[in-house]
């Protein structure tokens, strides 16, 4: 049975949002979460964007559940006039489109006024990746240091940080996947691990020997000192022995960038871009890289097939008969 938009309205609706529209948004979020199983970050972003639309609708006296196509175009136009970035406008458009599609499919509205909406075109930007020397500098920040007796003098947290950085670059994992990596999901014998990606989709990713060595050192000598007498199912743990969250990982990453003398604008996701670019440059096929990254669409992986002008020149010189 289709949900009813005019059911009892949620009494927790913000004062600047129509209660019936708020109720429909909350029902959509609940249904979408169950059916699509998106990440919590995506759910949070959709709710924020839809509430922004709801506030605009009430402010401009538009029936937010039954707007016309022209009224929705006006909403997008006002976002652009307010100088929101193209990415933000398109993200909000995506949320509104998905919401009205759900309303229409469930019989709450008879027409979908958002189906023909189009957002501003975005320039094609190549993903940012680190230079080889930058990768070496970053991975060297928490590298092994030995004392006069040949003993590793790093603190447990430094061994963990080294293992985490090596892991991120070894398989191109997202920071959320690293945080959620389970202890039982790492197979040192097979040289691989199971990660839980977007939409709770599980995939197996291979790990190279240097990453496995750093992760094994952390597991044997550092992790027991961090968890102490606690039981934690996650591979990477905080200094208190709990799951190491994404915020803590990003903070550590920023500290590593500073220690390596690299720009603070580099993100953990850039390390994922670097992994993809490097393995493709090394001869890996596109389908394999798609599997390793956990991309649903091959076109998403294809953005990493970019080449530098220098490499284009070298390839032209190598391949052309008169090169």
UniProtKB/TrEMBL annotation:
Record's keyword annotation contains DNA-binding: yes
InterPro entries: CB, DNA_brk_join_enz, Integrase-like_cat_sf, Integrase_catalytic, Integrase_recombinase_N, Integrase_SAM-like_N, Tyrosine_recombinase_XerC/XerD, Tyrosine_recombinase_XerCD
Core-binding (CB) domain sequence ranges: 19-104
Keyword Cytoplasm part of the UniProt annotation: yes
Intracellular or extracellular location(s): Cytoplasm
Gene Ontology CC: one annotated term: cytoplasm
Matching Pfam families: Phage_int_SAM_1, Phage_integrase
GO molecular function, one term: tyrosine-based site-specific recombinase activity
Coiled-coil blocks: none
Domain annotation Tyr recombinase: ranges: 125-317
One GO term of the biological process aspect: DNA transposition
Keywords from the UniProt entry: Cell cycle, Cell division, Chromosome partition, Cytoplasm, DNA integration, DNA recombination, DNA-binding
Catalytic site positions: 174, 198, 269, 272, 295, 304 (o-(3'-phospho-dna)-tyrosine intermediate)
PROSITE patterns linked to this entry: CB, TYR_RECOMBINASE
NCBIfam families, per the entry: PRK00283.1 (NF001399)
Similarity field: Belongs to the 'phage' integrase family. XerC subfamily.
Function recorded in the entry: Site-specific tyrosine recombinase, which acts by catalyzing the cutting and rejoining of the recombining DNA molecules. The XerC-XerD complex is essential to convert dimers of the bacterial chromosome into monomers to permit their segregation at cell division. It also contributes to the segregational stability of plasmids.
Subunit structure: Forms a cyclic heterotetrameric complex composed of two molecules of XerC and two molecules of XerD.
Protein name (record): Tyrosine recombinase XerC
Organism of provenance: Senegalimassilia anaerobia
Taxonomic placement: Bacteria, Bacillati, Actinomycetota, Coriobacteriia, Coriobacteriales
